[in-house]
Amino acid sequence: MSDVEEAITRAHHEEWARVVAAVTRRFGDLDIAEEAAAEAFATAVERWPADGVPPNPGAWLTTTANRKAIDRIRRENKRDDKHKEAQMVYEADPPEPVGAIDDDRLRLIFTCCHPALAMETRVALTLRMVGGLTVPEIARAFLVAESAMGQRITRAKAKIKAARIPYRVPAAEDLPARLTGVLAVLYLAFNEGYLATGPDTDPVRQDLTAEAIRLTRLIRALLPQDGEVAGLLALMLLTEARRPARISVSGELVALDEQDRGAWDTGLIAEGHRLVRERLAAAAAGVALGRYQILAAINAVHTSARDIRDTDWSQVLALYDQLIRLDTSPIIALNRAIAVAELDGPEAALAIVDRLAEALAGYHAYHATRADLLRRLGQSQQSRAAYDRAIDLAGNTGETAYLTRRRDQLQ
Predict the structure, then answer these.
(1) Are residues 69 and 2 in the same domain?
(2) Of 245, 268, 270, 375, which sits 20 to 30 A from 231 (CA to CA)?
(3) What does the pLDDT look like over 154-173, one tens digit per residue?
């Protein structure tokens, strides 16, 4: 890849949300904003190789996207009065920020997470508009067909326009109604960065994980007493802390039991543990723990162990038992089975995993987990078949390399 191509790829990762948010703020239309942003990046692909990468790629892209947006408005509104109206919109100063925090991307998240939209639609739309994820990437996150996901996102943008949903951080009394969707979006965006599914992307997208953490910190400033916001921030920090040890020099995913724990970020771990202790203290006082708080507590157990052999698996299992009462997702059940394998052996875990076959048939981690359990039971032929299926489904390049090596080590 040339230097210019790398610059365009980096700009797309780092600037997409800023460009979309800036154009949305000016024109108030998600369709126009997304199309203008896409056209701006297409123009960069055409012009930067000849003209050179601009000193401030984000500003160049935003200016170009604004011009593309006004061009579209002019095309769609041929009459003079509409043309003048569009020109006034384009030339006017951006409106004053509304809300407690002046952050365009946070406003865009809250716009996409309006209660008028179904929860899954809120999450999908925000991953597209703010996270810059492609429709195939979002479809994989939801385990649905790409065509269905594309239609869902299109309908959501149309509904926001028709309902005149405002582009702003809502007032304090409106925040709780939006919060569940916003946290779900940030969690999925972080996960996409932590284990990127695009075939041509790096195994870990630090731009996405860093942005998810930044926005979660902003929401914590808005809602400092909310336990789930604190829990999600702790979960992200404890997960991000392990990033330096997660990918080998050859680009292969490094499993938790093989990671160099000395490479973990102790500062992030300390901050994450502090947040978890605060939430556990609240639980001891009678405050119920939510999903993200329990997930953060599980990660705190893992990051407290100096060696994989020191992991308190009984505590991990107890936390998963607590979590599964709140979230009956088969993915939670799959992760719980991994803890069962450490305590009761791979045969007991495999019995649990096999019961999830129908629900998780298209999920690569199901087949990877099953392959590992079969390997531990000495069933090499069945393990190989499960690894093959996991490799076919895995979108992450580092994970594919890891699974391939594990399969090839079978006798």
Answers:
(1) yes
(2) 245
(3) 999 888 888 888 877 777 78
